[in-house]
Backbone:
C-alpha cells in the first residue's frame, strides 16, 4: 500500500522545467534515497510534496488523499515532516522553543507541545542544550535541531534534505545510526543526499533524478550498476 503517490508532477519557473513529469510511489515504512546532480529538481520536488510550491501539473496523494496545491500546514497536520538543505533555526529562541515550534502543529496545548519537543531533543541528543539559544549551536547541532523540530510534529513521512552535508565522517556515522532508529520506529523516510557511502548504506531503494526526470528507480545495487546513472551522476561504477 502506498503512503505517498506522485503522479506526473510538473513545475516550471518561466522557461525552466525544474520537475518534468515525475511519478513514483513510496510504501509505508520504506526508506528511499533521492539522488541526482545539482539542479536535478530534488529540493523542488520536496517543495511540491510539502505544498511549499504550487504544482503546474500532476497530483500528490498522501494517505489516499489528494493534497495537491493545498495549504502547507495541511501537509504538516496530516503527517509530513521536513528538514531543509540550509538549516533554518530560530536563532534568538531557545533550542527547546525551536523544537516546540514543530510540536505545536499537532499538540493539544503548550504543555503537550513542550513534552513532545523535549522527547524529540532527547532522541537527537540535544536535551542537555534545551535552554541554550539556537544561535549558539555548531553546524552538526543545528542539523540535529532541524531534525528534532521535524520529529516533534510526529511525522508519518519524513523528508530529509541533505541532512548529512557539512558533517565529518564520525558525525555522519552517528547520524546514520539515528536515522536507522527513526526508521525502525515506523517513520517512512525519503532522503536527498550526496554522501554516496551513506545513501547506499541507508536506503532500501533509490530514485535518481536528472534534469527534472526520473532516470532510475531500484535497489542500491541496481543503481550502482545502472549505466545511465553512472554517466549522469556517479561518474564511475560505485562499489558497495
Residues:
Amino acid at each position: 500500500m502506498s503512503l505517498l503517490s506522485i503522479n506526473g508532477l510538473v513545475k516550471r519557473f518561466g522557461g525552466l522545467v525544474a520537475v518534468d513529469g515525475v511519478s513514483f510511489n513510496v510504501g509505508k515504512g520504506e526508506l528511499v534515497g533521492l539522488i541526482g546532480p545539482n539542479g536535478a529538481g530534488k529540493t523542488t520536488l520536496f517543495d511540491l510534496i510539502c505544498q511549499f510550491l504550487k504544482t503546474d501539473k500532476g497530483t500528490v496523494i498522501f494517505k489516499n488523499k489528494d493534497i495537491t496545491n493545498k495549504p502547507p500546514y495541511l501537509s504538516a497536520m496530516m503527517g509530513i515532516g521536513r528538514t531543509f538543505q540550509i538549516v533554518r533555526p530560530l536563532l534568538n529562541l531557545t533550542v527547546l522553543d525551536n523544537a516546540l515550534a514543530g510540536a505545536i502543529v499537532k499538540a493539544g496545548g503548550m504543555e503537550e507541545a513542550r513534552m513532545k519537543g523535549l522527547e524529540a531533543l532527547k532522541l537527537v541528543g540535544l536535551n542537555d542544550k534545551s535552554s541554550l539559544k539556537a544561535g549558539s549551536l555548531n553546524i552538526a547541532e543545528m542539523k540535529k535541531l532541524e531534525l528534532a523540530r521535524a520529529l516533534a510534529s510526529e511525522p508519518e513521512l519524513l523528508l530529509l534534505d541533505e541532512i548529512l552535508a557539512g558533517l565529518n565522517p564520525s558525525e555522519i556515522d552517528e547520524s546514520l545510526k539515528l536515522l536507522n532508529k527513526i526508521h525502525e520506529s515506523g517513520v517512512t523516510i525519503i532522503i536527498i543526499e550526496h554522501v554516496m557511502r551513506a545513501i547506499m548504506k541507508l536506503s532500501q531503494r533509490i530514485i535518481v533524478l536528472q534534469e527534472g526526470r526520473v532516470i532510475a528507480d531500484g535497489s542500491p545495487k541496481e543503481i550502482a550498476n545502472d549505466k545511465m546513472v553512472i554517466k549522469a551522476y556517479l561518474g564511475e561504477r560505485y562499489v558497495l
